[in-house]
Design goal:
The chain is of the alpha/beta class. It has 12 helices and 8 strands. A 6-stranded mixed sheet has the order 5-4-3-6-7-8. It has a two-stranded antiparallel ribbon with strand order 1-2. Strand 4, helix 8 and strand 5 form a beta-alpha-beta unit. The radius of gyration is 21 Å and the shape is elongated. The relative contact order is 0.11.
Amino acid sequence: MTARRTVRALLEDTVARFEAAELSYGHGTTNALDEAAWLILHALGRAPGDIGPFLDERLDGSAWSKARALVDERIRSRKPAAYLTHEAWLGPHRFYVDERVIVPRSFIAELLQKPGRTRFSAMRETGSVPVSVLDLCTGSGCLAILAALAFPQARVDAVDLSEDALAVAKINVEHYRMADRVELVKSDLFGALAGRRYDLILSNPPYVKAASMRALPQEYRREPRMALASGADGLEHTRRILAEARGHLNPKGTLVVEIGHNRKALERACPGVPFRWPSTSAGKGFVFALDRDQLPRA
């Protein structure tokens, strides 16, 4: 039996078990193979990445049992792997997560990490960069931290209504040593931000419509409902952001919001608004940008 305890054997067995269990993915991986590789590498104390170089490595009983226990828990609990490992990755950046926050998976993160592909046109046209940034619905604080890394001169407000989420965000802010630049604020969207103005407002708000909420797989039901649900059409939070953002943007400021698969519904609801749709790894239509003077007046 010991001779068969290789990473390859463990990986093949885990993929087969995941497929038989009909797990759902989307919290950092998209398929059984990648999910299995992530959990196995984590159990072995290795960073996520290519498992290929380790496939022929033989495992002792302790390592084998530890990895199998993690795999068993993934199947039994239907928790996303990120909750079992307490880590989520956006590019090369690791963030602590637990069930108090949604698992980070934002296309805005892509834009922040690849400045050449961003469409923050107001800043691009003037040659300026933001020195004040707001991250609405910050959750784990990941976008606030990525914004602080992308714009080293900026101060960032990271806002969430959930005290639990802000507690997780604090862990990540402290890990990245950003406490002097990232302020955590409890607020229902702009509610507690009277008088504050920003060069850039980012938001990955709740955007799942009611019908989709009812059909969510078990893995997604493990996430906080308040971080997902946004009314009948998935646009309840986005409407509020559009209605109030102008009053919190500096001249030439920009609003960037992620909306999932709601582009058609949003454009029907807001005819004539000149949304810009930057390219992401999934294509266009998942994130929009608007400059301050393109937003409706309160």
